[in-house]
């Protein structure tokens, strides 16, 4: 049989056709096995009911968890002292938020710094998609002139020196700073998916969605930094003690 490879390459063509046929047969066998398993399940009322109950329990658990997250402010990108806070002390609100939410992304920004708007735009998109993580922002404009204020305290203890800065907190540990855009290729022309990739894949602060995967070509082109996470231990870099509302 001539497969269009020419006389000299006909053998290669035959091998290719056989490989394709074998692959199709393997896929067909796998599908048949899944269908057989499903047919058996349909014939077993008890097994089907068990599966249905398990699925209902999973859905209920997910719903309950999501409702709890929403009650804590997850799903929105908020100024930390807004939305139901009983205090104007941003430091107290920061500690409270870190206690309530297992994963927290805090954007320290100045309204007068245009590049902070880049993070504002992206974080506003990510917050509704990632209920598992809380996204908040803290305005540090003028806090240098308000020595002793909550914002000033956080800036000093967390070592906030670059605007914008994201502080990543997991299990009440401030474990990483993202300062500026170095981890995104060094410029502001990165997408929300790239930000999600860095936050999820590199730092584990959110659960990466299927539609947020970024190709290796994009990562290489933009020079995305896959840096290794190191715990922050010095006071200036902001090690947050999980037993006390203080920094060591």
From TrEMBL:
This is Thioredoxin.
